[in-house]
Automatic annotation (TrEMBL):
Cross-referenced InterPro entries: GTP-bd, Mito_transl_resp_regulator, NOA1/YqeH-like_C, P-loop_NTPase
Organism annotation: Nyctibius grandis
Coiled-coil annotated spans: 240-267
Record-given protein name: NOA1 protein
Keyword Coiled coil: yes
Entry annotated with the keyword Cytoplasm: no
Pfam families documented for this protein: MMR_HSR1, YqeH-like_C
Keywords associated with the record: Coiled coil
A GO MF term: GTP binding
Name of the gene this protein is made from: Noa1
Length: 542
């Protein structure tokens, strides 16, 4: 399958790579023979890409790990081990899989280096000047705490694979330091954004100029574990001439203002601004000029219904481009790998909680747009609900404290008193007020109950949060309290999932991103900071 890497088959609908038998025969028995299957996608990828539906597959928990481990243990090609490009979701720090890397590699894997990429920075608002530098330090600290002494750390970069922020810098770093010395493997936990990064690099200066025409994009979805096997594209050789031409393009683009962009570019840029706080423009220096296509009218092509897949027509299959032997015989490849599922460690909750949710619930829980923080001021004896997935009780303290929720904008947040919190949960869990899970009493019968954990914190000032309370995969609550003020809190997450107290917090000044207090409530009005576009000249004051 060109979308997830699974071997195509038509025998078992519950196994990876399934294609309906009729479709499989039409592809494999055409003029191209078995080659007709090239570029085809399995039923699961088709449903994910076109209908947002996820099919649960019968996969052993260790299957993804075995695929990754086997790939890394291959004999070194070109006399040098691979570079590992580890993709880390900054929202999930401390990353649960970093500590597993040494065991995954083993002592006999000749890795040349590790470049850690902190992804999804576009979702987080800037809580203070220099917040990206602080985030980078926290990612580097997570690497140090993971004990990765056997693998040399090349660099730490912050990017958004979705909006393109930091991607041109990442490509330049790879071409300067790694050049074309060996293969590159994209590694990381499920849902870290590896396949999105793979697709962005596929349409950048990092791959051979003809690769986007011959390599299909990886299937991307919010459902964990979308990629099931290896996907790859050939890396371009960054010769001195190519690097010079690329730098010329980047310098020229950096002199442009937004007004100088084409209407198409402006439209796409505005689309990205709505999705993230940090936006980048990923261009291409080395593009092969395509001959103008002659449109041949074929009434048969127009006869497809909207539910059919026109990509499987024999006419389009014949026009599919393929690499020649000489083009790739000495190529270095960039591999997308299956997401590594968390083992029994302190932060294993992410995959477990998502496995408890339905497709609709996953789409609500995983943030896809810039997160707008929601801040509440609570007195002792008050409770904060994040949907029906998490809860924080303020049990003891002398003064009020600020609780800033960093989670998907689609998840509801509600406050209550300690005396009626249990009744609210019993009445509204599974219903519209708390929203997730959804499905009423029947849904809640199969959903695990919330279990408590007591937390003691000491405030460090009214402008700086002391810690984040991570409520499973739902998000986190940053707690800000008066200096030296002792707080006793009780946090709840679904049974079988772990709760993490993150110190220092990821965004310590998050409570400052708020509007005026809403009269008669514990809530403040929300405030969304403006988006920033890198490598684009600004005009006037922002």
């Amino acid at each position: 399958c060109s979308g997830c890497g699974a071997e195509l088959q038509c025998c078992d609908g519950a196994a990876p790579g399934f294609v309906p038998a009729e479709k499989y025969r039409s592809l494999s028995e055409g003029p191209a023979g078995a080659a007709g299957l090239r570029g085809a996608v399995c039923q699961r990828c088709w449903l994910l890409a076109h209908h947002g539906r996820a099919l649960r597959l019968q996969l052993p928990p260790e299957q993804h790990r075995l695929v990754v481990s086997a790939a890394l243990r291959r004999p070194p090609r070109h006399g040098r081990g691979p570079l590992l490009l580890y993709i880390l979701d900054v929202l999930e720090l401390p990353d649960p899989v970093l500590r597993q890397l040494p065991g995954l590699l083993g002592p006999d894997v000749p890795v040349a280096g590790l470049l850690v990429v902190g992804n999804k920075v576009d979702l987080l608002p800037a809580d203070s000047p220099g917040h990206l530098g602080r985030l980078r330090q926290q990612v580097a600290a997570a690497c140090a705490q993971a004990g990765l002494r056997e693998v040399p750390l090349v660099d730490v970069r912050l990017v958004s694979a979705k909006t393109g922020f930091g991607l041109e810098g990442l490509v330049s770093r790879l071409q300067r330091s790694w050049r074309c010395a060996g293969d590159v493997y994209l590694l990381g936990a499920t849902n870290s954004g590896k396949s999105t990064l793979f697709n962005t690099l596929l349409h950048s200066d990092y791959c051979k100029s003809r690769a986007p025409d011959a390599v299909d994009r990886a299937t991307v979805s919010p459902w964990p574990g979308t990629t099931l096997n290896l996907l790859k594209f050939p890396i371009i050789n960054p010769t001195c001439d190519r690097i010079f031409r690329r730098q010329e393009r980047l310098r020229e683009e950096a002199t442009k203002t937004e007004d100088q962009l084409s209407s198409e570019e402006k439209k796409y840029l505005n689309h990205l601004k709505k999705q993230g706080y940090l936006v980048g423009r990923v261009g291409r220096t080395f593009q092969r000029q395509k001959p103008s296509q002659v449109i041949d009218f074929d009434p048969d092509v127009l006869s497809y219904s909207i539910d059919e897949d026109p990509r499987h027509s024999p006419r389009q299959r014949e026009e599919r481009e393929e690499f020649t032997y000489n083009e790739v015989k000495d190529a270095r490849w960039c591999f997308d790998t299956p997401g590594i599922v968390k083992e029994n460690c302190v932060v294993q909750f992410i995959s477990q909680v998502l496995n408890l949710l339905t497709e609709k619930e996953v789409k609500l829980v995983l943030p896809t747009h810039a997160i707008v923080p929601r801040t509440f001021i609570l007195k002792p004896g008050m409770v904060l609900f994040l949907a029906a997935l998490g809860r924080v009780d303020y049990l003891q303290g002398e003064k009020s404290a600020w609780f800033s929720v960093v989670a998907s904008n689609l998840l509801p947040v509600h406050t209550a008193t300690l005396s009626n919190a249990d009744a609210i949960y019993e009445k509204h869990a599974g219903r519209e007020l708390l929203k997730v899970p959804m499905g009423g009493e029947e849904r809640m019968k199969e959903f695990p109950p919330l279990v408590p954990q007591d937390i003691t914190l000491k405030g460090i000032g009214t402008s700086e949060a002391v810690a984040d309370i991570k409520l499973s995969s739902a998000g986190w609550v940053a707690v800000t309290a008066h200096a030296e003020e002792k707080l006793l809190l009780r946090a709840y997450t679904p049974k079988g999932t772990a709760l993490v107290v993150r110190e220092p917090p990821l965004l310590p000044y998050i409570s400052s991103i708020r509007g005026a207090r809403i009269a008669g409530t514990a809530a403040y009005r929300t405030k969304k900071p403006p988006s920033l576009v890198e490598n684009l000249k600004t005009t006037g004051k922002r």
